[in-house]
Design goal:
alpha/beta, Rossmann fold, 3 domains, 3-stranded antiparallel β-sheet
Length: 369
Amino acid sequence: MIYSIKRDHARFRAIVKGKIKQDLKKYVTHGEMIGRKGKDRVTIPVPQIEIPRFRFGDKEQGGVGQGDGEPGDPLGKGDPQEGQGEAGNQEGSHDLEVDISLQELAEILGEELALPKIEPRGHKTVRAKTEKYTGIATQGPDSLRHFKRTFKETLRRQIASGTYNPDDPLIVPIRKDMRYRSWKTDVRHENAAVIIYMMDVSGSMGDEQKEIVRTEAFWIDTWLRSQYKGIETRYIIHDATAREVDEDTFFKTRESGGTLISSAYKLCEKIIQTDYAPSDWNIYPFHFSDGDNWSGEDTKLCLDLMEKSLLGMCNVFCYGQVESRYGSGQFYKDLKEHFGPDHESVLLSKIENKEGILQSIKDFLGKGK
């Protein structure tokens, strides 16, 4: 019975994963559909899964499936009717909310986008403990009692003592017959990483652009956290100046000043040099803007910072240009012209709207670096 329940549950989970994978683009483009539930789980609405079943109707009404019929007879009941277009009072369709772990969500994303596993570069590790049931003990809590082994011990004792009666096979365990599952703690050292998000918050970056960044950052986080157990996240906003903020401030701040992208890159460089030795950490800067910069001179300074400092410290440097009616998009063109479209460490992506988020994630994470 327990095995049957576990099998049915596993089958249900497989169906749910299939539904999520089938509608992944919808979940990505409508980020508000996914709700946080604790640290490691989210809730996702999926269409109700209907189980096919027979329904019995009135007998001997004639028609197809009820006796003699003619070619061309309608399968339905009665004459077709035109819709009246009026409000109804019947119950509508409902979505079923299911819990799913971020690890499972990352697996679905990885399968759909064919993302390769990341090959870590930094050597800093964190201690990850897992407990595995590896043997049988004579002591333990009732919740870990091994019933099959307890039964065998009891039967062996009763046969050896001559108290076992095949005609009345009553098996009564005593304390010394009890057997329990035992475990050991497995300590593993896993690679650590840091994500540094940078975003232009000048007046040309509106709420729609920030929502695109917020949604894409969620999925980037989800994938990278499935690859690294020890991960930290830092946030930088900038207009003409840059400052480090918390996550909530990062996605809600809007300024009205100009844009100096180099201010964010200088602060990113300082954070790395102060807190994250490149020989130890896997470092992932992600910069999002609409492509405006104050001047060509500042763009040259950005390119110089990338070539002489940032690229040597980071696994990859990712720039995502979120299209805006007010942005020129020039910075993307400058990066592409300077580094080329196929640079190993400078990954560029244009995000025209929410529909482009999935492709942008693949642009950034598709190289497995």
